[in-house]
Write a structure and sequence with these properties.
mainly alpha, rod-shaped
Length: 91
């Protein structure tokens, strides 16, 4: 196969609907990963905010505070499991 045939084959692949679909999928995966990282940071910031604010001690009961922290821990655990490479790749 000469260079001209190789280049023609490469252009055929690049212009195919399948390649466009693959590019769309990669773009969606990159956006999802960015959103996941943003969500991780938000959960961390929320936990820090709850730790540093008097609101946690004053305006809510002990049971309410415990429920808030339990919910934050569950969300953090879920986000961490989604961000885990083994979960994403199915290994």
């Amino acid at each position: 196969m000469d260079t001209k045939d190789t280049i023609t084959d490469a252009y055929t692949i690049l212009e195919s609907d399948e390649f466009d679909t693959l590019l769309d999928a990669v773009e969606l995966m990159a956006k999802a990963q960015g959103n996941l990282l943003s969500l991780q940071r938000s959960v961390e910031e929320l936990k820090i905010m709850m730790d540093n604010t008097e609101l946690a001690q004053e305006e809510f009961s002990i049971q309410d505070n415990a429920a808030i922290y339990a919910a934050l821990d569950k969300v953090e655990s879920l986000v961490d499991s989604l961000a885990n490479d083994d979960y994403i790749t199915g290994k």
